[in-house]
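Section 3.1: Structural characterization of target chains.
Under the original work plan, the team committed to producing a structural model for every single-chain target entering the pipeline before any wet-lab resources were allocated. The record below documents one such target. The sequence was received from the expression subgroup and is listed exactly as submitted; it comprises 396 residues.
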Amino acid sequence: MHSYFCLGGAGRICRESALDLLQHAAVARLTIGDVDETAGHEVVAWLNDPRVSFVKVDLDDEAGTIAAMRGHDAVLDGTTISLNGRSTRLIGLAGCHGINLNGFGEEYAFDGLFREAGRVHVPGFGMTPGTTNLMAVRAADKLEKVVVVRVSHGAFRPVAFSKSITETTTYEYDPALPGRVVFQHGDFIQVKPFARPRMIALPSPYGTHPQYIIPHSETKTLAEYLQGRGVELIEVRGTWPPANMLLVRALYEWGLLRNESFNFRGQNLRIMDVIGDYLGQSREGTTTALYGYALHIEVEGEREGRLFRHTLTHTHPASDGSIPEWAGLRAYTRNVGIPMGIAAERLALGVACGPGVHIPERAFHPDDILPALALRGINIHETVEEISAYDFSTCE
């Protein structure tokens, strides 16, 4: 029996991780920790389990946050990208295993802290990054040489159903962001927003959409994992519902994604903060026609002197209400939250790699995590075809 702490646990995604642990793991206690007391108590009522309790935590109160987490086996960090550096340090100081959803890089600075504590932290383990990493590993480990890896996903959710999601949208298409890179011929190359468009055919019902390079951690972690295997190109792309992409493209073209300050009737405001708050209160910002997630991974390489392309996709129950627990927005949030719950249990059980902060590719094995996802209705599909040449068509 193990104990778990959900930091930012009142969020839509982290509560799905909590529910999965309660349903599938040996849980002694589970604590929802959040700055929002009302939402936190709502989650406790929704989970409806005597093992669950709520505690108010505020990352600005570092000593209080550490005290609240201390004694738990693993912390599931559902806080926003901008907080993950601080939250990771506090998890290490509390002496807990840790895992989060974003994995944008600040976490690795605390490797020594986790090693000293004899604990493991895995940055970025939801659907993408996380599941995508292990899908790529599954294919790559069947090849002697890996040359091209393309990770693509469609996240079909409203543009602003939570502040965390709004922040992700602004972050990923920030024109000044230094982490929007591709790995090409041994170097990380910076690209602009909406770079290298490629039409990606996602599984039904999501269809084919243009996708663009995004600043996800898989580019760097897969390059590390595949070092010495011959990799020449790694690209990570993503899309949201078409209406979302039209909005983000317009915000980019008009310079609004720079999030510059402006004077509004005597107040100094930042434009994307205003737009984000509006979208979070609007019907258009908080609803979409189709909900869910779709992954598409291509890995090209060599085995026994022949060239192959492995294509992996993923499917899940429909959001149409035919399966109530997957209806509407939960078809998206369960896809992201369930992998983090599964991975957190593995950390508590001690079946992940040794102490320190580790990339997902080294922390977990696809033959463990992917079958566990299938038990929850999240299925991975793989096809293999022989090819005559590697596809470098999107290189600039």
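Residues 131-335+361-386 form a domain with the Dihydrodipicolinate Reductase; domain 2 fold (CATH 3.30.360.10).
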